[in-house]
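User: what does the whole thing look like in 3D?
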Amino acid sequence: MDTHEIDCIVIGAGIAGASAAAHIAADRRVVLVEAEEAAGYHTTGRSAALWILNYGPADVRALTGASRGFFAAPPAGFAEVPLWSPRAMLTLAAAGDEVALEAHLAVGTELRRIDVAAAVAMVPAIRPGAVGAALIEEGTFDLDVATLHQGFLRQVRQRGGSVALRSRTMRIERRNGAWEVEVTGGTAMRAPLLVNAAGAWGDEVAEQAGVRKLGLVPKRRTGVIIDPAPWQPADWPAVMDAREAWYCKPEARTRLMISPADATPTHAHDVQPDELDVAIAVDRMQQMLDIEVRRVERSWAGLRTFAPDGSLCFGFAGDAEGFFWCVGQGGYGIQTSPAAGRLVADMVAGRDAGALAAILPAIDPGRFAGTA
Ligand SMILES: Cc1cc2nc3c(=O)[nH]c(=O)nc-3n(C[C@H](O)[C@H](O)[C@H](O)COP(=O)(O)OP(=O)(O)OC[C@H]3O[C@@H](n4cnc5c(N)ncnc54)[C@H](O)[C@@H]3O)c2cc1C
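Assistant: Here's the predicted 3D structure for the full assembly of 372 residues, as structure tokens:
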């Protein structure tokens, strides 16, 4: 069997692996291996496609903020259409639960309280008396995830790397100073550096490689598409319940995506939506919005995968040379991807991470040493 000698093997071609591989390929020979036929088949192809600055722990917020400029002005040739379009985020506290906004205001930036009448002017479907307080984040936006993802995959190829689809890792072994990886179909490769960007499968890949697991937990989240006619939601903001019990956003001009914001722990697999979660999404949305749902047009689920403390895990494993973790992207992997890919490339190259150096202790996988 021929063994390809390269500099870096990245496992998992979702947004995490694609963005990391694109940046690493600038100065290393990279192969990006993906088990499925299509690179975005799992969580990356199942997101809500939002960029929200005030979302997630501090390390995530830092990377989200550091990614903003890329979405607004990507490098020449990266994409033929804009990666983003403006979409404000309206956060609503139920009547009697106005205090729910305080937690957002305490840690958030670029947030503004608005009165309920102003919220109703933006989303006329709000039920009279249902909402007690509201705030708006105006700088948020919708993302074109497919274009972003394809842009990173194209960069990998343009920079001399390759993307190997239908290539699930079957054997990962450290031998004579390099990782040997054999994938389905029999291809074998060898590289001193291995980046584990396998999303929900991150711990399984570690186990294959004989590396201590981190205790990653994939959590199911559901999306539901409905027709809100006669409402016309195209220009509505995205709407989030202040306790994150549900959210919705306009989709394809005339439709609405709603989610029960579920986070059900499960195992890594091709997750499907549960009918109960679909019903909960509709019910919770209807408590605040007067939208009749005659039919659910489509529903799906994806796995948001978290480390035990909810922060990212980027860094070399303490117990295996050349094994780099790039996991724990949770519900923020798309909006953080431009800065995350650059940070991972800087870290593997030993370069200064600049302003992002401040988050390195929080995202160090070594914080779980011996706990999983
Ligand atoms: C309903 C929902 C809404 C969301 N909304 C947003 C949002 O608005 N904004 C946002 O930023 N994020 C959002 N997210 C989260 C975001 O989608 C994820 O953080 C991101 O897609 C994770 O990317 P990933 O590359 O880590 O995982 P994945 O896309 O799952 O990629 C991992 C890849 O690794 C491959 N793989 C696994 N094991 C192996 C192996 N042994 N060999 C080869 N390949 C392997 C898998 O096939 C998979 O393709 C949402 C998620 C869901 C489910």
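In plain terms: The first strand starts at residue 3 and ends at 5. The chain has a mean pLDDT of 97.
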